[in-house]
């Protein structure tokens, strides 16, 4: 494709994207395809001859669009928000269009230095001190794998040991809670600790936050039993109920035993843009690493995960490679981001954040986050006041955890398996209808429904419409029983 052909197709594609975004509210929220349907709409073999762009666009529309669950839809209340602000989409296009290669400072000085700049802007915007230095990973999952390797290396120096993991004399342990995102268990496994060495600490029965005294006791007991405490993953906004582990208390325990403390604020990091929310991670300055995703609630398009550490010397010691073909005369004077994480080749992700901040402005981003906090409070108040509805966890941010608990045939509250059946019946009915989308999840062994508010286009009117839909669907399902 020549630059001239690109210009013509590119203009058409931008028009198409703008139209597509405008009509999202008319689409069903959840993709209405059955398994295999998208794959079957494609030919079995790759095209051999060049085709034209208009035909490609038509196929994008007919084959791909039906298979998209519309997470930018104002009635999407599932998982966590995955906003993709159009300003950041432009940054993504610029990033691809520049065709850069990030394998060393020399391979694209601008890629390294813009990343340094935006990570520092984001540090300031979230109230972190100058002790932190950041980089951009693809996801919080990758950031957590990196953090767990850093924890392992601080406790063991595996990488300096020629037998690697085989030589470990005593098991190394990581602590978290059952509320932590599944990526934490995966990171612990991938970093070589083994699932048996991930210790889930007792949580508060209502807030689901880690109990620091239980953590301290578990660590003492492990030490007495010949195990080595190596890492703690503290959830600030755990996925199920947005539980907030008490960072300051946990950090004090981590410091006492020289344990690496990683703060996973994948979703809730966006809230730290608001000074009034920062008490939720009070004590964070004493952690060793922090990960959060602007690609969630804040709305810089995937993949934009910030990873901050205080001890970059340890990070580079663990992650660095220095083959002859990557050396240059700038070495020693510049940041080599390949030594700050797992991949060598890196994308110019910083452009997405820069475009987003420049074109939308932090004031409007903050106003939107505050709107969502208000909407979540409103919904929680409605549910708390309505007969048969229960709000199951504190609404720390923008997620409301609900159950509809109607009366059973004997006039008591529906419970057990019958309650599960009822919950799944009404939530699945809503999801299948395409009118709205919600994520059911399990809390205390029973199904519940998470309402995660925060899509860029979701206003109070949408949340009111959702509340109406929840009531009619749940009450209809109860009437059918
Ligand atoms: N941590 C928490 C609390 C999350 O909610 C999620 C995803 O929703 C993750 C980690 C993983 O994020 P990512 O998809 O960026 O790996």
TrEMBL record:
Keywords: Aminotransferase, Decarboxylase, Lyase, Pyridoxal phosphate, Transferase
Pfam families linked: Pyridoxal_deC
Domain of life of the organism encoding this protein: Bacteria
Transmembrane segments: none
Record Gene3D superfamilies: Aspartate Aminotransferase, domain 1 (3.90.1150.10), dopa decarboxylase, N-terminal domain (1.20.1340.10), Type I PLP-dependent aspartate aminotransferase-like (Major domain) (3.40.640.10)
Keyword field contains tRNA-binding: no
Any one GO cellular component localisation term in the record: cytoplasm
GO biological process: amino acid metabolic process; carboxylic acid metabolic process
Coiled coil: none
Residues bearing the modification N6-(pyridoxal phosphate)lysine: 296
Reported cofactor(s): pyridoxal 5'-phosphate
GO function term, MF aspect, one: carboxy-lyase activity
Keyword Transferase: yes
PANTHER family in the record: GROUP II PYRIDOXAL-5-PHOSPHATE DECARBOXYLASE (PTHR11999), MIP05841P (PTHR11999:SF70)
Family statement: Belongs to the group II decarboxylase family.
Name of the molecule in the record: Aspartate aminotransferase family protein
Natural source organism: Seongchinamella unica
């Amino acid at each position: 494709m020549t630059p001239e052909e690109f210009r013509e197709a590119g203009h058409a594609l931008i028009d198409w994207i703008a139209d597509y975004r405008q009509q999202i509210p008319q689409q069903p929220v959840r993709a209405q395809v059955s398994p295999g349907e998208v794959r079957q709409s494609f030919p079995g073999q790759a095209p051999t001859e060049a085709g034209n762009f208009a035909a490609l666009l038509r196929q994008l529309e007919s084959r791909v669009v039906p298979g998209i669950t519309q997470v930018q839809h104002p009635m999407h209340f599932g998982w966590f928000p995955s906003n993709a602000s159009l300003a950041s989409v432009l940054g993504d296009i610029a990033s691809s269009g520049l065709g850069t290669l990030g394998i060393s400072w020399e391979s694209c000085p601008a890629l390294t230095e813009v990343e340094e700049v935006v990570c520092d802007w984001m540090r300031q915007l979230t109230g972190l001190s100058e002790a932190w230095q950041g980089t951009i990973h693809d996801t919080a999952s990758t950031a957590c794998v990196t953090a767990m390797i850093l924890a392992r290396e601080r406790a063991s120096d595996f990488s300096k040991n020629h037998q690697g993991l085989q030589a470990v004399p005593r098991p190394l342990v990581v602590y978290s809670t059952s509320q932590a995102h599944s990526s934490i268990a995966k990171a612990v496994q991938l970093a070589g600790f083994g699932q048996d060495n991930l210790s889930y600490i007792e949580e508060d029965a209502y807030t689901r936050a880690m109990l620091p005294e239980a953590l301290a006791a578990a660590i003492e007991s492990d030490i007495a039993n010949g195990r080595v405490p190596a890492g703690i993953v503290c959830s600030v906004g755990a996925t199920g109920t947005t539980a907030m582990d008490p960072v300051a208390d946990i950090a004090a325990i981590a410091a006492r035993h020289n344990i690496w403390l990683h703060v996973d604020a994948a979703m809730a990091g966006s809230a730290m843009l608001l000074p009034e929310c920062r008490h939720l991670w009070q004590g964070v300055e004493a952690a060793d690493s922090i990960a959060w995703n602007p690609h969630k609630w804040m709305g810089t398009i995937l993949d934009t995960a910030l990873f901050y550490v205080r001890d970059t010397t340890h990070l580079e010691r663990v992650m660095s490679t220095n083959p002859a073909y990557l050396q240059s005369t700038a070495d020693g004077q510049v940041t080599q981001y390949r030594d700050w994480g797992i991949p060598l080749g890196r994308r110019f992700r910083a452009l997405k954040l820069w475009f987003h901040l420049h074109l939308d402005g932090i004031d409007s981003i903050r106003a939107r986050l505050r709107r969502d906090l208000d909407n979540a409070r409103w919904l929680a108040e409605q549910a708390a006041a309505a007969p048969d509805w229960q709000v199951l966890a504190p609404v720390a941010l923008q997620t409301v955890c609900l159950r509809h608990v109607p009366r059973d045939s004997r006039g008591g509250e529906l419970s057990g398996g019958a309650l599960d059946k009822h919950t799944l019946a009404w939530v699945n009915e809503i999801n299948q209808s395409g009118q709205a989308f919600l994520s059911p999840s399990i809390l205390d062994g029973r199904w519940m429904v998470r309402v995660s508010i925060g899509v860029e286009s979701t206003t109070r009117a949408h949340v009111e419409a959702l509340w109406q839909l929840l009531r009619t669907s749940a009450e209809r399902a109860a009437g059918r029983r």
